[in-house]
């Protein structure tokens, strides 16, 4: 998936980002918070932060502990809530860390790794 659109509204608590299949037509909208939306937007626009933001901190921590963020995976939709995983390669082992999709996408944009969505989730909500 690729990030195609970010809608930020200062009058609304819910922001929307759109992911689109790289080699397809389906899109995947997801509602996220303002902090995550602005963090993603800053990254996409290449705007530097004077100090590391939370997603920068996590990316640096993974790297300094010898891990390599391989990708992020939006794995399921349960009770109207999406679940995601950070997939980190460490010492030849793949470690999956539970994450909110908004945080996972913000980190993926920070580190420039692929974003994947489970086929059953995409089939259920993809447009």
Q: What's a concise summary of this model?
A:
The protein has 127 residues and is an alpha+beta fold. It has helices at residues 34-45, 54-64, 101-111, 119-125; strands at residues 2-7, 15-20, 27-32, 68-78, 81-90, 93-99, 115-117. It has a four-stranded mixed beta sheet.
Summary tags:
127 residues, alpha+beta, Bifunctional nuclease domain, 3-stranded antiparallel sheet, 7 strands
What does this structure look like?
There is one protein chain. The protein is an alpha+beta fold and 127 residues long. The chain has one domain (2-125): Bifunctional nuclease domain. Helices cover 32% and strands 39% of the residues. It is built from four helices and seven strands, in the order βββααβββαβα. The protein has helices at 34-45, 54-64, 101-111, 119-125, and strands at residues 2-7, 15-20, 27-32, 68-78, 81-90, 93-99, 115-117. A four-stranded mixed sheet has the order 6-5-4-7. Strands 1-2-3 form a three-stranded antiparallel sheet. Helix 1 runs parallel beside helix 3 and helix 2 (54-64) crosses helix 3 (101-111). The chain is globular. The two termini are 13 Å apart. The model has no long low-confidence stretch (mean pLDDT 91).
What is the radius of gyration computed over CA atoms, rounded to a whole number of angstroms? Answer: 14 Å
Query: Would you give the CATH topology?
Result: Bifunctional nuclease domain
What is the CATH domain class?
Alpha Beta
Secondary-structure element sequence? EEEHHEEEHEH
The CATH homologous superfamily is called Bifunctional nuclease domain
Number of helices in the DSSP assignment: 4
